[in-house]
Amino acid sequence: MKDPRIEKLxxxxxxxxxxxxxxxxxxxxxxxxxxxxxxELYKQCLQLGAYPCIAxxxxxYFPTTIGNATEEQYKHIxxxxxxxxxxxxxxxxxxxETNTKELSRLDPGRVAKYFEEAGKITNIMLExxxxxxxxxxxxxxxxxxxxxxxxxxxxxxxDFVYSACMPDIHDPVGYWKKIAAQQEKIVSWMKGKxxxxxxxxxxxxxxxxxxxxxxxxxxxxxxxxxxxxxxPIEDSANGHVHFTYPTVHYGNEVEGVRLEFKDxxxxxxxxxxxxxxxxxxxxVDQGARYLGEFAIGTNEGIQRFTGQILFxxxxxxSFHIALGNSYKETLGKNESSIHWDMICDLRQGGKIFxxxxxIYQDGKFMIEF
Length: 369
Known about the structure:
By secondary structure, the protein is of the alpha+beta class. The protein has 11 helices and 20 strands. The longest helix is centred in the N-terminal third of the chain and has 23 residues, at 108-130.
């Protein structure tokens, strides 16, 4: 019997996240492991009078492509996706991997090159979104592969995913509208602020946010959601960070990451596991050693690390920074083929100061918003 939560999640995605309208062209694509959710999305789009198209990735698509195509072929292989992104009204991307480690044995340089080409298409999507021409959303369907990474049974992981996406299963849209209103108050308070200082065990980092707006995330482009973020001034990061959790990048798990910054640039990077991969990715282009994002996770329904960044970066009581490409919507200027999020837990001794005022301690806001 089909899990009724699939229908509820599909409805929230279509009617709240991207608000599909009749006669809109909707691209639904993802790995085959997400078939149940993609089919439900397809059905509901049809019922709304939209024009949906499902474009599934077969098992092994990405390692087969990256491992066998030449770099010259990458652009041409991605042309159909680019055509969708240039012409469709809505994009719904559903992650449904059946093997999350399938890229871990490939040459990191080739992997980066492929996703650099794919990133150009993402930029087209973001430009169209900024013009009001397209809406998009990214979500995940629980598979055995994700459950194994999270060290849960599939049933436990399903409960985790749906409770994170829809904390109020009876009124998920109403819940996220309330979160959006609350987070907008925080974003408004941040307006005009200039300096961030984060401290935690092994972490002491400062950066400038002068002229950079914060944005609230409440299940409109990521499902689940729960964060506020901005793009720091590119040459402003100074200090060091010890990341609490492993970070997974294209199937490569890197643990015990420590980064040191001077005038915006990461001048030293170490890791307890997979350090060579970390260094290679930091050297992939000029922007990879600079920050593209600073964010605070606010989803109280996500309290544990699972190895899936879509969830982990929203852990309530954490902050994360991303090396590489920044967001135009927060006026970021850094460009890179990577955008690599790394997470630090603030629930045990962590603090965030904004313009020397303590606003966050031990994973909680200290100001009433």
